Amino acid sequence: MARLFAAIVPPADVVEHLDEFLEPRREAGEFRWTLAEQFHITLAFMPSVADHLIDEYADRLADGLARTPVPVVRLAGPLAFPNAAQTRALAVGVVPESEGADVVLERIAGRARNAAVTVGTEVDGQRFRPHLTIARLRRQADTTNWVRLLETYTGPEWPVLEATVLASHLGEGPGKRPRYETVAEIPLGQ
């Protein structure tokens, strides 16, 4: 069984831009910061996928994304889950920059979830809310000041050219974090 998720992985320049913004701030606060090489926007998370279904999932997702237009987005704006007063995760929002990009992102996430259901695997999570998690907290805390700080961040825009299917191997990464393995990179249609 594999822990699998479909995601949008930002291009290197977008990752570098956000990482440079966060770097001088990482010593403050009791956060467990997301490593820059693991930045992603989750489309669908599947906690337990039978190994023999992984390739089939990627194929179904490819079928679903074949005619999907390329949205242009940027990272900007703070998100605190569940809220700023009782935060467990701190994130940066995904802002649509091209016409209809918000609808296209919803469609991409929906197709990632539908592909999972089609192959007979469970999808975890709630309604899609596009974001990139930058840090987690062990205990809930008030992050109002961090939210204000993140309001000042606006990243470069980029076209979302593909979705990536990743396997998550718990405890195998640096500092006992998960290690992500790319299973498939699926281009969006034009």
From TrEMBL:
Motif HXTX 2: chain residues: 131-134
Keyword Hydrolase attached: yes
Enzyme Commission designation: 3.1.4.58
A Gene Ontology molecular function term of the record: 2',3'-cyclic-nucleotide 3'-phosphodiesterase activity
Motif HXTX 1, residue range(s) on this chain: 40-43
InterPro entries found in the cross-reference section: Cyclic_Pdiesterase (IPR009097), RNA_CPDase (IPR004175)
NCBIfam families per UniProt: 2_5_ligase
PANTHER family: RNA 2',3'-CYCLIC PHOSPHODIESTERASE (PTHR35561:SF1)
Protein name per the record: RNA 2',3'-cyclic phosphodiesterase
Gene: thpR
